[in-house]
Specification:
Layout: H1 3-23, H2 25-32, H3 34-37, H4 44-66, H5 72-95, H6 106-120
Helix pairs in contact: 1-4, 1-6, 4-5, 5-6
């Protein structure tokens, strides 16, 4: 995959994940598949908090889609926080038989989002990465 193609797909992925986090989590947790996206016993305070966090992240992913190279730390945070969150939930769902459906719902969704974003991140030597890995990496363009 060329660097330009990778960047185009990264922009699309950031938009898709951003929109999903903004409008997809709530219906999945409440109507479409609560067994795979919510945890028992239901705790509305927790659910509102986690939905608020993910809506906020979704907004920032949409903003990052405009200029991904300027938002690499946000993208990396999304990758790593998704891996950590999914890993913890996988361990909890594996331990608690009433939560096994989460192993087919929110857990793989977070791992998938992390993997796709990682796969599409500019690689060292990509011409489209510009200064993303050089001495100017931390400075705004």
């Amino acid at each position: 995959m060329t660097a330009e193609t990778r960047m185009r797909y990264l922009r699309v992925a950031l938009r898709v994940f951003g929109v999903f986090l903004i409008v997809g989590i709530y219906p999945l947790m409440n109507w479409i598949w609560p067994d795979g996206w919510a945890w028992e016993p239901r705790q509305t305070e927790y659910e509102q908090m986690i939905q608020g966090i993910y809506v906020t992240l979704g907004v920032f992913l949409l903003l990052a889609a405009r200029e991904p190279l300027a938002h690499l730390s946000l993208i990396r945070f999304t990758i790593w926080s998704s891996i950590v969150h999914a890993g913890i939930m996988a361990a909890q769902a594996g331990h608690d038989h009433t939560e096994h459906a989460n192993l087919f719902g929110d857990v793989p969704a977070l791992f998938a989002m992390a993997f796709v974003l990682w796969w599409l991140l500019p690689k060292r030597g990509d011409s489209a990465a510009g200064t993303a890995f050089g001495p100017e990496a931390g400075k705004a363009a």
